Amino acid sequence: MNLISWIFLLLFFAAAGVGLLMALRAQKATVDASQAQARAEADIKAQREKLLDEAQREAQRLKDRGQQEAEALRKESELKAKEQALHARQEAEKLLAERQANLEKQEQRFQSKEQSLQAKEEGLDKKLQQVDQKAKDLDALNEKRKAELEKLEAKQAEAKQLVEAQAQRLEEIAGLTREDAKKELTAQLEYAAKMDAAKLVRRIEDEAQEEAAKKARWTIGAAIQRVASDVVAEQAVSSVQLPSDDLKGRIIGREGRNIRALEKATGCDLIVDDTPESIVVSSFDPIRREVARQAILKLLADGRIHPARIEEVVEKVKVDMDQHLKEIGEAACIELGFPDVHPKLHKLVGRLNYRTSYGQNVLEHTKEVARIAEYMAGEMGANAKLARRAGLFHDIGKAIDREVEGTHIEIGMQLMQRYGEKEEVIHAMSCHHGDFEPRTVEAMLITAADALSAARPGARREMLETYVKRLEKLEEIAGSYKGVQKSYAMQAGREIRILVDAGSVNDDQAYWIAKDVSRRIESEMQYPGQIKVTVMRELRAVEIAR
Question: What is the pLDDT of residue 6?
């Protein structure tokens, strides 16, 4: 055999040895596994028997415990049942005792009632006997009175016959019948009574007139003294103080465009002269003047002064002015004790603060009239609150008389009716200029109070009112033409500026409006010097870039 054969033979035996060894190991492993399985089954069986023993012992223990608890519950329920039976027996005995006691009490009450009824029956018998006795006595008394009445009637008939006989005898002696004598005596008594009454009435009237005159003088004097206040004459110009003169140039603007925009937006005349650090605002309308003054102050504080900003600020100031007027009116109403005034009237009352009548502030005048009328009504025993309320509203029509046709009394009556004021207030405020006949004491007092407030020395000034009326007439003439948007009297009435709608008025029509207005002013008004009529037609196109 060669080397290769030996090698193959060795390899074969080696492989056989390895296979035998592996077979022996596998057989050993199988035996070990069988032994382990047997041991495991024995352990499981032992544990199962142990657990069964423990479960049987636990079941027996639970069974014994349950029997003990059941026995305890049975004994406890028996005890409770015995207690409940005992309690029910006690309650029944108690209820029986109470019913027995109630029965005894009812029996006692029945016995006492029976005794009282017997006593009452005996008393009634006695009273019936007494009534019978009294009835017998009354019958005897009636018989006696009847006899006396018959005797009295006989005596009265005898006396009547004697009186008739005496009257006939007196008629024969006097020569007058009974009726004639009665008439003559009555006439004499009536004449004497009338004479005495006439003398008494004349004396009372004289004393009343003298006393009324004294009382009226004292009441009027006391009322004026009580509400006396300083009078400040209203002016037609306002002054705006500037921080420095450099601001005058900014207000005027390039080529005067800023000052022209201010004058156009406010309707006031702005005077920028050599007065240091001051600009004068001139207008006959105090509200316009105040709007212009506030607008200038806001522009100065803001620093941006150009035509667009001027228009924006003026519109904002007008809105603020409306709120300011409401606050003034509300404060005046509350001051006079009328918090129930309609809110729409607050603004109208506030407008009176910027309205003058012959130089007298109308709001102060109305408050003064209200207080004077209230005081006089209190002294005379009239309705003081009604007089005070009518005094507050007597000139309310002046708040819008420049905007609405009619007298301020007619306008005021319409406003009062619209906002729910009482008829007696409307009547009292409508009579103060004699347009209506006063039917109440309060209406006459309002007339007197209005005259007293206006007639006080220094209260009014005629020239200012005439000047204001002339300016109002100028604006009224200018505003009567179709297409006119606004009109402003300026330069103390020496110029009227008219703003017309560019869409409805062309250049030729604007020229003829100026000519026609100037002719009407010449024919309808009286004024010193000359008046310049300026019609301005402006077309403004505005578009927003977004």
Answer: 73
